Amino acid sequence: MPKDFLNNVVSEKATLKDVLDRLNQGALGAVFFVGTDKRMVGVMTDGDVRRAFLKDATLDMPATRFLRQKFTSGRANASHEENVRLLTDEIRHLPILDAKGRLVDVLSWAEMWRMPIMEPVLAGNEMKYVMDCIATNWISSQGPYVKSFEVAFAKYHDMSYATATCNGTAALHLALTALGVGPGDEVIVPNLTFAASANAVIHSGAKPILVDVTKNYWNMDPAKLESVLTPRTKVIMPVHLYGHPCDMDPIMALAEKRKLFVVEDCAEALGAEYKGKKVGTFGDAACFSFFSNKVITTGEGGMVTCADASLYDKMMVLRDHGMRRGRRYWHEVAGFNYRMTNLQAAIGLAQLEQIDRFLASRRKIAQHYTAGFKGLPGITLPPEMPWAKNIYWLYSILIDEKKTGITRDELVRGLEREGIETRTFFYPLHHQPPYRSSDPFPVTEALSARGISLPSSNGIKPGAIERVCKDIHEKIEHHRVMNRALKATVK
Ligand SMILES: Cc1ncc(COP(=O)(O)O)c(C=O)c1O
């Protein structure tokens, strides 16, 4: 059975360079030494290699000089549980030996233990409300939780109307279609966003026109908007990315001056504020997502809020196959089935009841991370402009390779090995086939190449955040020492 760990097995003749190469290529942070009789003789972790170089070792030295001959191992004939119990914060890769001391497997911490980037907390009335749906037989979109969730959501935003949908992309498409966006129209979309923002535009028949984002808060740059407007522009779509609001005043002023609609994409920023006012209350319509990684979730789900009764009416009709409200099976337009089910809405309502707690915990998570990165050069922390309240949907940072000595992608791989899930920033839309453009987008390019989001679940514990920060510190230190050793050898 081919196993990944075989890439991390070397003979006693290996040099430090061989060990480094194996560490860089393999999925484990340790290399296992096997003697001519096939018995395992020692182990070297990336920490051991680092310490060797700190003692002025060079790449051509035999690695066995620095070998850890005393190491903890599991037994092939022990139970899985017994072996797992030997894994600790220090021993993250456990060699499993047979009765003759031969290496037969490696048990890795990362296989046993994952820190997801985002997982839902379903600790309120979710179960109770879902059970109620089942007990009453209301599981489709006809049940009463849909209305209750919509009313509560609208109230939370102090908006007149909220329309629940089956997901956030459908919410965007519904809003654009109800505003009359179609072929021949253009919609301004930031280049740095999840593709759903632009996809909704394309599916409405219009063309997404990309605009660059700002260096300091990573969102649509209002100063660049005017240059992309044409007589065909119909909508500006600000996306409040990673939990930070867009600078809404200049966007709204331009929209008013040029008689354009504004559709806010709030998928990643429920509860964020601009100048003390919640996002989703500025545009003609605002769209939310309740996918399972969002601040509140319904599994899949979305919502559109608006203040205008006729727009709301159009969306209600379009959401339900274009059927006239109050006249069943009479279709005024060819609509969609974008309805949310009662089961989803039941979860959504229970989630919304907990939103204050979720948002408070997100700010604490951000404080913990920020404290954990103190004094670490080369890391740009997530922005919070003086006019903004960031909800830190994903705690996201930028890595400066020149100062840290590690590339963003090396860091992602290193954390992956420790079982820590991260997410790189979105690729610039203009690099991808459906949205290709040859215009320059220098800020989007720079952020996209350097950005990484860290585990940010509502329920993540301070100890877990400390672990992520400690691992990042270690990975950076490791690369600093390695780079120095490599440079010394090349000389
Ligand atoms: C910025 C942005 N817009 C739109 C969406 C689409 O939402 P959904 O996945 O619910 O369709 C998402 C989320 O996934 C998003 O992050």
Question: How would you describe this protein?
Answer:
The protein is α/β, with parallel strands linked by helices. The chain has 3 domains: 4-112, CBS-domain (Roll), CATH 3.10.580; 126-352, Aspartate Aminotransferase, domain 2; 355-490, Aspartate Aminotransferase, domain 1, CATH 3.90.1150.10. The protein contains 16 helices and 20 strands. It has helices spanning 16-25, 46-54, 80-84, 109-112, 126-136, 144-156, 168-178, 196-203, 248-257, 309-319, 342-352, 355-372, 401-404, 408-417, 442-450, 462-490; strands spanning 9-11, 30-34, 40-45, 74-75, 93-97, 103-108, 161-165, 186-190, 207-211, 233-236, 261-265, 273-274, 277-278, 285-289, 302-306, 379-380, 388-389, 395-399, 423-424, 451-454. The strands form 5 sheets. A 7-stranded mixed beta sheet has the order 7-15-14-11-10-8-9, with helices on both faces. Strand 2 and strand 3 form a beta hairpin. Helix 5 (126-136) runs antiparallel to helix 11 (342-352), helix 7 crosses helix 8 and helix 12 (355-372) packs parallel to helix 16 (462-490). The longest helix is centred in the last third of the chain and has 29 residues, at 462-490. It is elongated, with a radius of gyration of 27 Å. The two termini are 42 Å apart. The mean pLDDT is 94. The chain binds pyridoxal-5'-phosphate. Pyridoxal-5'-phosphate binds next to helix 7 and helix 8. The site of pyridoxal-5'-phosphate has 14 residues, from helix 7 and helix 8.
In CATH, the architecture of the largest domain is 3-Layer(aba) Sandwich
The dominant shape is: elongated
According to DSSP, the number of beta strands is 20
Q: How much helix, percentage-wise, in residues?
A: 25-40%
User: Within the largest sheet, what's the order of strands?
Assistant: 7-15-14-11-10-8-9
Kindly report how far apart the N and C termini lie.
42 Å
